[in-house]
Design brief:
The structure is a single chain. With 86 residues, the protein is an alpha+beta fold. Helices cover 41% and strands 31% of the residues. The chain has one domain: HU Protein, Chain A (Irregular). The protein contains two helices and five strands; from the N terminus they run αβββββα. The strands form two sheets. The protein has a three-stranded antiparallel sheet with strand order 1-2-5. The protein has a two-stranded antiparallel sheet with strand order 3-4. A hairpin with a 3-residue loop joins strand 1 (27-29) and strand 2.
């Protein structure tokens, strides 16, 4: 039962983030980071299989910037993994 409840809550959070991004809004989650949507312009590219030049269309992509606390946590984990005092 606990797993099902956690899955439902996780899905609710993901749906809320998805809905917010579709409206071009920003969502901030305390001590985790900020989700947003970026507009990428159309650009030229190369199909790696054929080598032909292609145009990659403009699109919206999700972005995430971690909070300073999250960045500090990651840095301390790396230091501890490298054998530092942490």
């Amino acid at each position: 039962m606990l797993v099902a409840e956690n899955l439902t809550r996780s899905n609710s959070i993901i749906e809320a983030i998805h809905g917010t991004l579709k409206k071009n809004e920003i969502i901030e989650i305390a001590e985790l980071g900020t989700f947003g949507a970026l507009k990428r312009t159309a650009r030229k590219g190369i199909n790696p299989q054929t080598g032909k030049k292609i145009t990659i269309p403009a699109m919206k992509v999700a972005s995430f910037h971690s909070s300073q606390g999250t960045q500090d946590d990651r840095a301390s984990v790396k230091v501890m993994a490298d054998g530092g005092a942490g």
